[in-house]
Amino acid sequence: MKGLMQDWPLRVTTLIDHAARFHGDREIVTRSIEGPITRTNYKAVHLRARKTAQALQRLGIKKGDVVATMAWNTARHLEAWYGIMGLGAVCHTLNPRLFAEQLVYIINHAEDKVIFVDLTFVPVLEAISAQLPLVKAYVVMTDRAHMPATKLPNALCFEDIVEAEKGDFKWVTGDENEACGLCYTSGTTGNPKGVLYSHRSNVLHSMAANMGDALGMKASDAILPVVPMFHANAWGIAFAAPAVGAKIVMPGANMDGASIYELLDTEGVTCTAAVPTVWLMLLGYLEKTGAKLPALNRVVIGGSAAPRSMIEVFEEKYDVKVFHAWGMTEMSPMGTLGALKAGMEKLPLSQQIDVKTKQGRAIYTVEMKITDDNGVELPSDGKAFGHLMVRGPAVAGAYLKGEGGNILDADGWFDTGDVATLDEQGYMQITDRAKDVIKSGGEWISSIEIENIAVGHPKVAEAAVIGILHPKWDERPLLIVVAKEGETPTKEEILKYMEGKIAKWWMPDDVAFVKEIPHTATGKIQKLTLRQQFKDYKLPTASAAE
Ligand code: ADP
Prior knowledge:
By secondary structure, the chain is an alpha/beta fold. Among the domains are: 10-214, Rossmann fold; 436-545, GMP Synthetase, Chain A, domain 3 (2-Layer Sandwich).
């Protein structure tokens, strides 16, 4: 028997409709690319998104076409998003930090027809536009006064084309399973692969992401997504904030400690989200200036593991609650969030932080388990670690154009490529990416755990651990360290600091000091490059074993 409820397709336009109708005057504040702080609200964004849809229609864009954006987090970017998706087209967020060849590949593979581009990235596209035969127009996201002299063919000015329209546009409707967003994963090996979100998956993800134990946003919140809209949907914030009418504070191009602090302070931000490297910059700034964070009550840290020392500083020194999150582009992107369970808030702070150092519990809609190499499920005992497998309505079922073949197992589980433990309470802890795990004497060593402890040393700025070939143990860990400015830590003092914090056999066999650790376009440590850099490295313990 079928239910008799209304057929209300879950389309992302309903999110901005809701915000405009019930929270119309709630502000969207932007550090604009041109410089000044600008202010708009949901009602105005809603109108200008409809104007954007009309402008795109005039350019010949139809339902199902792909339109890209290469832009920072700004109100204009939000308008372009909803305009593209509201026309029934697919919004493809381009990561400007990718190499030129990767961008050319992605733009052609996705068949982008129009690209919205921020002033900052005009030169990036100018350098490759000759190789992009399918792109019909470039919309520079600025006003007439700031329009650059550009070599881009058919370059249009955002404000000109948007403000030329009336905005009397009705969103294109259709099935909730139609595509609305596209984001390529960085692809450390092989070509990048396109994750194609549907209206339904994004709406469900927004609702799940907004639950109390997840982002838990309210109309009274002011949220600052430092995490870019071009990286895994800004963790869903650009959809989830309008659903509740939260104020959004957009950081534009400036992610340094001083700029982020200024917005947190002057805009009364209550909740913010970013990768650990951004928080390192902010905490460095706070330390230097003695500034405090009175309005901020929670910070979401994800994308890479949040080191314990960082969680401690936020919680103990600044009285800001930390929510450690894990996810991936293929998961829209949120998978877990580390809110405490009943009774845990009564634990001593150090034990609460033990829980928060883990990546958290599955949010509703995410099913999760760990398995061994043969696909057999492992126990949730907090000790066994295995392949982290996920399923759910906002998890990718395939990549665009079938790249990578069938990505699900017979029961519909997607292998995240991460290795993790699950404990009795459901908290998951990432121990490694499957390809980074160190295999020593038949056992696995977690590089992430060693890195997290090493960065707790007061003289260490950043640390990475890779496996180095060893004649007796197959592989042994090498700790690679970037020292804090003006500091010269020794191998002995770092190893001494780690003693007792990890199992003896996990202790790195050596420490190498470098000026810089390479990062991927999404801010992760580039282990592949490090392994190449250190491929001929001889561990002091190797000769002894030979
Ligand atoms: P990209 O490969 O493009 O950077 P994603 O942003 O989708 O793609 O990366 C997802 C991966 O990031 C996860 O599979 C995991 O390895 C890592 N990751 C995300 N959050 C965390 C976290 N809190 N702790 C450790 N690793 C994380």
